[in-house]
Write the structure tokens for this entry.
Amino acid sequence: MIETRILYNDRCPICRAEIAHYRKRAAATGAPLRFDDLNAVDLDPYALTPDQAKRRMHALTPEGRVISGIPAFAAIWAALPGMDWLARLVMVPGVRQVADLLYNRVAAPWLYSRQIKREAALARSSDGA
């Protein structure tokens, strides 16, 4: 079975929780998804730096193409039985543009900013230990 590989940040609590949900559904249904923690996997197949990888959701399609943002989420949803309707909906012209805008301008920058702050706080606390 050829899998779509999903790249996510396991150190981000929100990302980790969302991926745990998808992983559980994928395991229960046999969906062809593989979840790669960007902190523990070779990023070469994704052609991303660690910082680029942290900034948004990415996926590597079975054809070897890297997709990110809303198309990466749509790839997950399309593979999960019962969620394929969401993949189709979010890719409808007009809906796609609004979803892209919200993800690219609000959700992804907010999550990235929170993660950078968490990492800085962790670095400060480990420096003082």
